[in-house]
Amino acid sequence: MTKHDNLIGAEWVSFGNYQDNINPSDISDVIGSYSYGDASSVEAAVEAANGAFPAWRDATPQARHDLLDAVGNTIAARKDEIGRLLSREEGKTLAEGIGETMRASQVFKFFAGEALRQVGDLQSSVRPGIDVEVTREPVGIVGLITPWNFPIAIPAWKIAPALAYGNCVIIKPADLTPGCAHVIAEILHECGCPPGVFNLVMGRGSVVGEALVTHPDINAISFTGSVATGHHIAETCGRLRKKVQLEMGGKNPMVVLNDADLSVAVPACVNGTFFSTGQRCTASSRLIVEAGIHDAFVDEMTKAMQALKVGNALDSATQIGPVVDAKQLNSNLEYVDLARTEAAEVIGGERLELDANGFYQAPALFLGTSNDMRINREEIFGPCGSVLKVADFDEAVAVANDTDFGLSAGICTQSLKHAREFKRQAAAGMVMVNLPTAGVDYHVPFGGRKGSSFGAREQGRYAVEFYTTVKTSYVYAG
């Protein structure tokens, strides 16, 4: 079995404690064995990053561009290989795995360009003879903690801006899916990343993640993951006065109005609710349907859902891959049972026993639900969607906004008036019209409101807000 070590200061380091990376499509398939670190591993990575920071901070924009551009090109050239690895370790379909890999390539190449586009302001002071210069500088050593559901895209959209703006990085990928982050580390190393500028420390969040969050020399933490962990990180970083960025959960609404085109609405809802096995923080988990179209929508949605092919992620016929692991599958099945307890009608949702020994679940649709049910308040993070019938547009908006989350929201309508009003009234960071709630571009900001996000936005030019700090300088010429 291939063993994979951590990258610290341009050296591959073993911490001895190897953990197997298992394919959720077929648990007999062990992808590799990955070395898990501890607090002393983080200490070594911080020492390497501190040593590297002055030179990387002062590196030319061209040097940063060239590194990130080379990484983006290499990921693209290896998209089929990396996409297959992604699908093996996370369970996305092969098409989704390759697509996510290409997204990582695009992110690196976008921020290669941003490395050359950094700007400031030169202003005249209100006092005569004085100039005012406003510039941005890197925050320093950045700790990145990434989730299992987008194992290459999310590391990419944290690593690339951090490096583009002159920071040094220590990343802890999810312990369920370390393979893709390890590949990024390999590529950065091969592309000539200076020693200590990028460091990979794999391991448990409670050990490695906690060490990153509490280390006094780490200046900022960017985290994507669960709400409970995000709250803990926010409290800790606040106490230690660290800059913090959090992306957490979602309970995203998709409104379907009476005038919606079902040939548009149903595919958008199927995609948003069930694709990527529903394991997306932007998934459409609440389908809020106006009464006049409710029955026709449910009929078409049920047919489309039941036609989906669940199977091995590497099978070209598969549309829905496995759930990521046994713990997540059991959680999903508990919510299916809860839906019945809460008097919802349940279509699908059962565990599937397929030829391969994996974590398979049929997609589920919950009918006759109300917004006060737990299934509509709590993030399930699986292929489960609830239908809520509403009387009109105003009730649809009220139900859509009645949640502790505020990441993404969608509406299917042919009314320009209602589309415009929904964009204005939706209490979410992202709004989709006649599109799935999941699926975003890499060159525009990503993030939400309320319990979904905290701190500056990710991706696009807005990433500069988190990965830099502003300096105002005054010059008197005499």
In short:
The chain has 478 residues and is an alpha/beta fold.
Can you describe what's shown?
The longest helix is centred in the N-terminal third of the chain and has 23 residues, at 94-116. This protein folds into two domains: 3-248 and 452-476, Aldehyde Dehydrogenase, Chain A, domain 1 (3-Layer(aba) Sandwich), CATH 3.40.605.10; 252-433, Aldehyde Dehydrogenase, Chain A, domain 2, CATH 3.40.309. It has a seven-stranded mixed beta sheet, with helices on both faces. The N and C termini lie far apart (70 Å). The model has no long low-confidence stretch (mean pLDDT 97). Strand 16 (351-352) and strand 17 (360-361) form a beta hairpin. Helix content is 39%, strand content 23%. The protein has helices at 39-57, 61-77, 79-90, 94-116, 153-164, 179-190, 205-214, 227-240, 262-274, 291-306, 326-341, 393-401, 416-425, 464-467, and strands spanning 3-4, 6-8, 11-13, 17-22, 30-36, 121-124, 130-138, 141-145, 168-172, 198-200, 220-224, 243-247, 252-256, 284-290, 345-348, 351-352, 360-361, 364-367, 384-390, 405-406, 408-412, 430-433, 449-450, 453-454, 468-476. Helix 9 (262-274) crosses helix 10 (291-306). The protein is an alpha/beta fold and 478 residues long.
